[in-house]
Every structure is written in structure tokens, then in C-alpha cells.
Amino acid sequence: MITNVPKPNEEILDSLSEFKNIFLLACGGCPVGCESGGYERIEELSSLLSENGFKITGSTLIDFLCNKVLVGSRLRDYISKLTETDAVLVISCGIGVQSTGKMIDLPALPANDTVSSQGMQGLWPSAERCAGCGTCYLAYTGGICPITTCSKSLINGMCGGQHDGKCEVEKDRDCGWYLIYNRLKSLGKLDNLKKIPKLRDYRKQDVPDYERVTTRWALEKEIRYVAPKPNSEVEKEVQK
Q1: Confidence band, pLDDT 50/70/90 cuts, at residue 229
Q2: Within 10 A of 96 (CB to CB), how many other CB atoms are there?
């Protein structure tokens, strides 16, 4: 299980500040097991955004957002709502955010931070990876992870070794920051480069010793977050 916890409300609102119409997309896999997702989290975020002047164009829950085929096929039912949407707020680990960004021509922004699970990755064999760094940057990097795409895991831009968009570590590998720059340019969001923190807080990346009692620490740890229970009307609307 990939453990993820909700981002602070202030950070979510800041990442959405340039948008008006928001679609909420939740993963029905790991976030539900962590109690940081599911219909309860959709309702919570829907209330938060509505109270702050955003319009919710629609919402849904898909079993596993790390499965791009499933994401693409399920989102086809919401094309009419997505055409009225400025950005998609994704309730999942970093892999789900990246997979969603690959399947739609809209900004996909994270609602959660992914906590290190000592190497556990998503179950869908694709290019997207999440390092569980504890601080998700995808809202600012166009849905491309700088930690896993850049061979040096840089968060402050490309190094001096890249050449013609290729990495100096592997000559046939695309430079992660070259990809990020071009993605932001295509979205008209190059100003995002000014918002990325200059330093990483590595304390968020590791799992405390007291939580790593066994290899199944994720199933034994104390619950970090419990979302409020939904009312029946909201859940019915989400399930449509």
C-alpha cells in the first residue's frame, strides 16, 4: 500500500488559485486504505472549494488511478464535464496524479502528499513513478515528477550537464526538467517555476522507526487522518 496524507488546505487553495472550475478525481485504492481518500474526502474538498469560490464541475472515484487504461476509459463518461473544467484535483498518490495528467489535456494537481513506503510503487507497469518524498510538487511541475524524472532528483531546475534536452547521466534519457519546462510552456504556466521551494524537507521522506516495526508497517501504524463521513445526497451525486 502506498501511504498518502492530505495536503494542508492552504497549499491546495494556493495551487488552484489561477483556476475557477475544478473536477475532483479520487482513487479508490490506497487512499481509501489510508483513510485519506474515498467519497468522504471528495465531500470534504468539495465543501472547501465551494466555500472559497470555486465551482465543482463534477467528481468521481476510480478504483486505481495508477492504471492509465482504467482512468482513460472511465473519464470518457465525464467528457462533457471536463470540457467545462480548468483543472483536475486528484486525490491519490503521486503516480495517480501523473497518470491522470497523461490521459487528459488539463492540469492535474495533487490533493495529497505521498509518504515514503521504503520502495513500494504502483501496480501499473508504466513510466510514472512516485518516490514517496512526502512533499508532492506535481501542482507546480505540470504533472511531471522532478524527483523521479530527473536522474539527480533536482527540484530547482535542470543542471548544467544537460545537452539538447538529454540527461548527462544517460545520453538517451530525456532531461526531466526539459520535459517539465516544455509541459509548463504548453500549459502557459511557466510562472510556476518561481513557486517551487528551493529546498527539500527530507524529514518528510523517511518513515520513523517506531512505525517500521515489521515489513507490514503500513498496515499496523496508527491512523494519521480520518475524513468526515459523507451525507447520503453527496455520495449519490458522486456515484452518478
Answers
A1: low
A2: 35
Which residue's entry shows cell 517539465? 180
Among residues of the chain, what percentage have pLDDT more than 70? 80
Whole-number percent of the chain with pLDDT over 90: 43
Q: Which residue has the higher pLDDT, 234 or 23?
A: 23
* Identity of residue 156: N
Give me the pLDDT at residue 166, please. 92
Cell numbers placing 72? 482513460
| pLDDT tens, position by position, 73-107 | 899 999 999 999 999 999 998 889 988 998 888 99
Q: How many domains does the chain have?
A: 2
The residue range of the domain holding 171 is 143-194
Rg (Cα) of the chain, in Å, rounded? 17
Locate 92 and state its grid cell: 491519490
Q: State the pairing for strand pair 87-91/4-6.
A: unpaired
Same domain assignment for residues 75 and 170: no
> 148 with 42, same domain?
no
